[in-house]
Amino acid sequence: MDRRPPISRRNLLLGAAAFGVPAALAGCGSSDTPSGGTSSGGLGTVTIGSNASDEIPKKSLETQVKAFTQGTIKINTVDHNTFQENINRYLRGTPDDVFTWFAGYRMQFFAQQGLATDISDVWREIGGDYTQAFKDQSTGTDGKQYFVPSTYYPWAVFYRKSLWEEKGYEPPATLDEFTALARRMKADGIVPIAFADKDGWPAMGTFDILNMRTNGYDFHISLMGGKESWTDPRVKQVFDTWRGLMEYHQPAALGRTWQEAGQSLAQKKTGMYVLGMFVAQQFPEADRGDLDFFTFPEINPAYGTDSIDAPIDGYMISAKAKNVDGAKALLKLLAQASSQNIATELDPGTLAASSKADTSDYSALQKRGAELVSKATHIAQFLDRDTRPDFASTVMIPSLQSFVSEPAEIDSLLVSIEKQKANIFR
Amino acid sequence: MAAKTRRYSARDVTVLVIGLGVAIVVNVGLIWGPTLASVGLSATGWNGIGPIEWVGARNYHDLAAEYPPFWSAVRNNLLWLAFLGLVATPFGLFCAVLLDRRLRLSRVYQSALYMPVVLSLAVVGFIAQLVYSHDYGVLNAVTGLGVDWLGDSSINIWVVMVAAGWRHVGYVMIIYLAGLKAVDPALKEAAAIDGAGERQTFFRVVFPTLRPVNVIVLVITVIEALRAFDIVYAINKGRNGLELLSVLVTENIVGEASRIGFGSAIAVILLVISLGFIVTYLSQLFKEER
């Protein structure tokens, strides 16, 4: 060592130039090339564009793809809402191979524009793991499959068991019983129905369920598809029913977020809340066991309680995917029950879409949720996923908010929605 | 005159071409190009993916006749302008005049009033929610009222303008304060010797000398009113009584909706309103120079 010639600053720099820079460049490059998983499968790198920006879903996806041994995975996570709002530009630009998306009309819309890759061959392998309802929600208007369902969550009427036992409330089976219960709660000094619509979308859940209970799933989907008139007496009936219930809704809903309404339910200030299973997030860990739900009661005996909203999240392959084989292999992995169980374990507000998923580790709430969905004949995806995105965001959000602030003005509102619908669905 | 135009040498011409050329390219590429593209797109129906379809003035008819948020947005933009121009700006001037009189603790007042200016309007939006929220807001808690300040579409625009004004007052105040410091004290002295009262001195002597500052403040006020966006977006995405033209443009074009033609039509309306102010301002300016 002592014989080593002293290194001058100049030589050091030259040395760095000769060896260091290429090494550094190679170092940069290696983060993109297979490093973690073995490349024995030879499928190379698969990129995922993910909207799972929240901590739990993010961790869930990362854990699921660890099992992918045929290549390397690179996840590009983007903020949930930003991802959604930029989906058009994203898919037309340089999208990742696989991207997170939603089932139903929202998927069909992009498949129809030629922005998604047909994965019917993947479905021939995984088809047995899903019920027909899930397959339908993954199928484009051309009869081919474009989507692999991962998890979903049902919408229902949530309440706290302890409060209901204390007051002797029973889950209602019909609209009359529901109204009677709400009246009783009001007399007991509890706000019967928690309600919030500052963000614009939560009221869509109430509209969906009232419409499906009153007019059935087929009419609802056809209305969402722009094929029915909003001035139809059947639609008016829905808003009339809603108006009748308005006095039992939590007032000042347009200034409140669903999180605040969820907290009011947790604090027993409100009696029940029509929302997705994710309302559990607003409950402290200790109180989650106290959260229960019932499906929205029957309005029209012809339809009973045969439909619910249960939005499905999953994965698609972009039309511009560079590594289609790798992407398809990844979708097969994500379709496996074992992958989806990772998600349901980490996030108690979701259920696995695969029928083969292990439900023994489900929480009580998850078990009840799975039971609810299995009983439903029809599964809708939620208003903003069952119709055109422009109609949902620029027409339905302002319109439902205007109904919430002035429930008496139904006729003029419906005329206005119908005119705007005609402008968008032409 | 005609003979003089021949005096440019080849070098002059090159410099001119480069100098003017770059400016023209940048101007056309970044200002006129997008502006004309917006005007052109506003006459089309385009979802950003498929073919562009020519629809003429249909978008304008749709938004004026069948898009309820449009008129509330126009109304709110004008209200915003009126509020900043007639309430917030004069109040800022008033504060500046008071502070200029070297009150005790004037530095403290000055800092307190100027503080909100360093906040972005989006942050002011979050602060406004802490104050106005129905369930946990300070205002309802302190006064014992149960008003839904942000959810009630007949009052939310007013309370949000107060929040925006809170910031605007500080901004205007600091500009006027700088202007007032520059006013020659001899003028005021002379006015006092001539027997003018406080009020007269201010309106007849001091205010007219502030003319250049007034122009700047006027321009700032108009710009602030027309570009207002972040505060309402932070509060409720600019819906339910808080519609603004800028929000509707974003909502229609940038969001998942991708009604690019329709959104462009709204942008053109905003352009026309802005042009109204710009043309008035410039014509005033040129008239004086002559």
Automatic annotation (TrEMBL), chain B:
<keyword id="KW-1133">Transmembrane helix</keyword>
<keyword id="KW-0472">Membrane</keyword>
<dbReference type="GO" id="GO:0005886">
    <property type="term" value="C:plasma membrane"/>
</dbReference>
<dbReference type="InterPro" id="IPR035906">
    <property type="entry name" value="MetI-like_sf"/>
</dbReference>
<feature type="transmembrane region" description="Helical">
    <location>
        <begin position="12"/>
        <end position="32"/>
    </location>
</feature>
<dbReference type="GO" id="GO:0055085">
    <property type="term" value="P:transmembrane transport"/>
</dbReference>
<dbReference type="Pfam" id="PF00528">
    <property type="entry name" value="BPD_transp_1"/>
</dbReference>
<dbReference type="InterPro" id="IPR050809">
    <property type="entry name" value="UgpAE/MalFG_permease"/>
</dbReference>
<feature type="transmembrane region" description="Helical">
    <location>
        <begin position="111"/>
        <end position="132"/>
    </location>
</feature>
<dbReference type="InterPro" id="IPR000515">
    <property type="entry name" value="MetI-like"/>
</dbReference>
<keyword id="KW-1003">Cell membrane</keyword>
<keyword id="KW-0813">Transport</keyword>
<comment type="similarity">
    <text>Belongs to the binding-protein-dependent transport system permease family.</text>
</comment>
<feature type="transmembrane region" description="Helical">
    <location>
        <begin position="78"/>
        <end position="99"/>
    </location>
</feature>
<keyword id="KW-0812">Transmembrane</keyword>
<feature type="transmembrane region" description="Helical">
    <location>
        <begin position="260"/>
        <end position="282"/>
    </location>
</feature>
<protein>
    <submittedName>
        <fullName>ABC transporter permease subunit</fullName>
    </submittedName>
</protein>
<feature type="transmembrane region" description="Helical">
    <location>
        <begin position="155"/>
        <end position="178"/>
    </location>
</feature>
